[in-house]
Amino acid sequence: MPKRRFSRQLPLRWRLTLWYLLTLGLILLLFAAFLYLELRSSLLSQLDASLEAVAAQAAQNVARDGQELRFQATGSREMEPVGDEYTLYLTDAAGAIWDVAGQVSAVPPLVGPETGAAMQTVQDDAWRVYVLPLNVEGVAGWVQAIADLDPISDTLGRLATLMLLGGPLALLLASLGGAFLARRALAPIDRMTRTAQAIGGGDLKQRIQYDGPADEVGRLAQTFDAMLDRLQTAFARERRFTGDAAHELRTPLTALKGRIGVTLSQPRSTDDYVTTLREMEEQVDRLARLSNDLLLMARLDQGRVLRDADRMDVADLLSAIVDQLRPLAEEKSITVTQALPDGLVLEGDMDLLIRLFLNLLDNAVKYTPTHGQVTITAAAVDGELRIAVTDSGPGIAPEHVPHLFERFYRVETARSREVGGAGLGLAIAYEITRAHGGQLSVESRLNQGASFIVSLPCAGISEK
Fold first, then answer.
1. In 3D, which of 80, 81, 48, 67 has the Cα closest to residue 141?
2. Does domain 310-461 have CATH number 3.20.20.330?
3. Least confident of 45-49, 166-170, 218-222, 244-248
4. pLDDT of residue 66
């Protein structure tokens, strides 16, 4: 447990460096072992080939001398020099030496095997011996070719020394390089940490501003900056929402308090009290609507508002909403036109969808001048329902369009507080559309009216 706790307390760059060194050390160790064994095998193979060649050459120069065998060159009693690195013995089955050639060594002759040639290492890996059986004119014997293994041992020893000295040096250099690379690679993460600490102090303007390669760390830094942008925007929106909500709540409360104070300042008639109470009722109604809107916005933000989906006919739903608003339109002599084909089916929370289209139609009627026109159309396009509410009002200036669906946003012209509402109607419509997997957009030009387009998934087409 202490070791594990210690490893967790190490900075990430040191843990990466340690893991890098451990991995590199293991690779170097395996490579050194492979190189050592491969070189040893190669040197022994070369030596064995030389011993076999020397023994075969010597066997061709063996002649019978009574009941023994002797080395001799063709046509003479002397054999060609073998070389100082080899020793040749010519023995009988019991190991008795008949003849010797080359460098005489202290190695005792080996008794040859009964059948076949053999390669052996003797005296604690000091000598390499090749035994070759032969039969000359009925006399059996063995040629033993012997070589000293010290040159191979010296070569392998030097290699081992180089690896023992070079391995730690390589690991030291690798640790310095690994620490440098880890520090350089993790520098953006350090900046993220400092940025997060600054944000903890309330400074949402801090950014990493990474300008390195677009690798994993680079993408993380860019994602972190993008997240900070969204957070800053969200916090600014929430602060603005809180301030606007407080202002909207304070306005009717201030009006109520002022009206109550004026009413209580002196005795009044019953009619005056009734008038005052009616005015106060309007302010209370406004407070109730605002409170309900704020509660609905909060529930939409939390995604806890959708109930079980209802299937409904689009034409029936929109016609009922139009009938509900028709008296308001008739007061202003506004013509409401419908182009709603039969059979289009919509699926969702009926209460919320009614609120969505009621807000849009109410908005259109309120901002359409007397003797104007409001049109509502529906169509199925590429698996989507597109429902458009179009008015012939004053239109919306381009600079206001991007902000129309922000909470408490009002266009400071015809679309103002004087027509009622707190600037939440379009924001609620936008959030309801999003909650149903759709989109709400607006198309408008000054003095040419506005068209709000709702795109929702189509649940099918039915036959009436």
1. 67
2. no
3. 244-248
4. 81
Average pLDDT, the chain: 81
The residues, any chain, with a CB within 8 Å of residue 265's CB and separated by 6 or more, are none
Which H helix or E strand runs over 406?
none
Domain ranges of the chain: 9-154, 216-302, 310-461
pLDDT, average across residues 414-443 = 77
**pLDDT higher for 100 or 376?**
376
pLDDT at 77: 42
| pLDDT per position as a tens digit, 23-78 | 988 999 999 999 999 999 999 999 889 888 888 888 888 888 888 888 875 444 44
For residue 221, pLDDT over 60 is answered with: yes
Q: Which of 79-88, 139-148, 173-182 has the lowest mean pLDDT?
A: 79-88
3-state secondary structure the chain: CHHHHHHHHCCHHHHHHHHHHHHHHHHHHHHHHHHHHHHHHHHHHHHHHHHHHHHHHHHCCEEEECCEEEECCCCCCCCCCCCCCEEEEEECCCCCEEEEEECCCCCCCCCCCCCCCEEEEECCCCEEEEEEEEEECCEEEEEEEEEECHHHHHHHHHHHHHHHHHHHHHHHHHHHHHHHHHHHHHHHHHHHHHHHHHHHCCCCCCCCCCCCCCCHHHHHHHHHHHHHHHHHHHHHHHHHHHHHHHHHHHHHHHHHHHHHHHHHCCCCCHHHHHHHHHHHHHHHHHHHHHHHHHHHHHHHHHCCCCCCCEEEEHHHHHHHHHHHHHHHHHHCCCEEEEECCCCEEEEECHHHHHHHHHHHHHHHHHCCCCCCEEEEEEEEECCEEEEEEEECCCCCCCCCHHHCCCCCCCCCCCCCHHHCCCCCHHHHHHHHHHHCCCEEEEEECCCCCEEEEEEEECCEECCC
Inform me whether the pLDDT recorded for 389 exceeds 90. yes
CATH assignment, 216-302: 1.10.287.130
